[in-house]
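Run log // design_07
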């Protein structure tokens, strides 16, 4: 099983080029970054990651563009895989996004993994063109548009959210037919969202869950397997566990995921400055690899 890392704020203080190269040299398999184009000064939607009474974390409104950060990381590495965890699809036009991703995947030699999200912040989504109440319907259509741009010599689309005549979109991604799409999820009140699994089976390639225990993960894997059987599709779902802050930093914890057939566990880097992250990676390599 592979072990990757996630950097919550891959800015100049945590330079993606230096951090990613150091991670690759130590033997980590991947480097992942999050996404918020901006954050409204005032918003009504509670941040799901804030379980206390304090303000929402400042990193929500300080994130650099994820694809620029990953391009910087990919340029200085040769084997390290790069991914978004997660990119907010409704906030970008899918034709433009398809071009950016295809370029990154082409330049990196096929090392990009596309973790996607629909967003939790209603005001943010709507400012940037998202249909918040039906955002996953919009994401599904956007993914179809992107796949057409990646896979077809000419593509056109006439849907609810996007319409355009035949176009040519190049370059094509290095990965064929296209980079893998991962859908995230987290348990709420002890239950997985059935809709996430249905989307994965219908039009996704991977699952990017946050879990409190391997037992939680197993219940999700079992449900996914059932849905693939019902759909009469082979289960080729790629599973990468996305660690929350402080999780899965030792071999003992990681071994339980390996037993479940997980492809990779991604560890959240807690430091925010390049030199401190390098030290953190050094320690993690001894404890987790």
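design_07 sequence
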């Amino acid at each position: 099983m592979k072990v990757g890392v996630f950097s919550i704020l891959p800015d100049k203080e945590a330079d993606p080029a230096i951090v990613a190269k150091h991670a690759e040299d130590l033997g980590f398999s991947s480097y992942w970054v999050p996404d918020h184009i901006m954050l409204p000064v005032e918003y009504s939607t509670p941040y799901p990651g804030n379980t206390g009474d304090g303000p929402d974390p400042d990193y929500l409104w300080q994130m650099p563009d994820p694809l620029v950060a990953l391009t910087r990381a990919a340029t200085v590495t040769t084997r390290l895989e790069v991914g978004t965890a997660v990119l907010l699809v409704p906030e970008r036009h899918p034709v433009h996004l398809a071009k950016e991703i295809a370029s990154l995947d082409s330049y990196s030699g096929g090392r990009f993994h596309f973790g996607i999200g629909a967003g939790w912040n209603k005001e943010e989504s709507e400012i940037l063109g998202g249909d918040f109440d039906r955002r996953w319907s919009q994401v599904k259509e956007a993914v179809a548009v992107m796949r057409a741009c990646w896979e077809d010599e000419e593509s056109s689309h006439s849907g609810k959210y996007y319409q355009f005549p035949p176009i040519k979109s190049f370059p094509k991604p290095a990965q064929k037919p296209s980079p893998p799409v991962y859908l995230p999820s987290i348990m709420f009140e002890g239950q997985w969202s059935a809709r996430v699994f249905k989307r994965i089976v219908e039009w996704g390639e991977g699952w990017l869950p946050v879990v409190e225990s391997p037992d939680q993960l197993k219940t999700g894997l079992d449900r996914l397997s059932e849905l693939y059987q019902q759909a009469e599709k082979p289960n080729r779902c790629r599973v990468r566990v996305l660690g929350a802050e402080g999780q899965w930093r030792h071999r003992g914890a990681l071994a339980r995921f390996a037993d479940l057939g997980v492809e990779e566990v991604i560890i959240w880097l807690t430091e925010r400055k390049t030199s401190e992250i390098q030290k953190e990676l050094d320690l993690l390599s001894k404890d987790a690899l």
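The mean pLDDT is 97.
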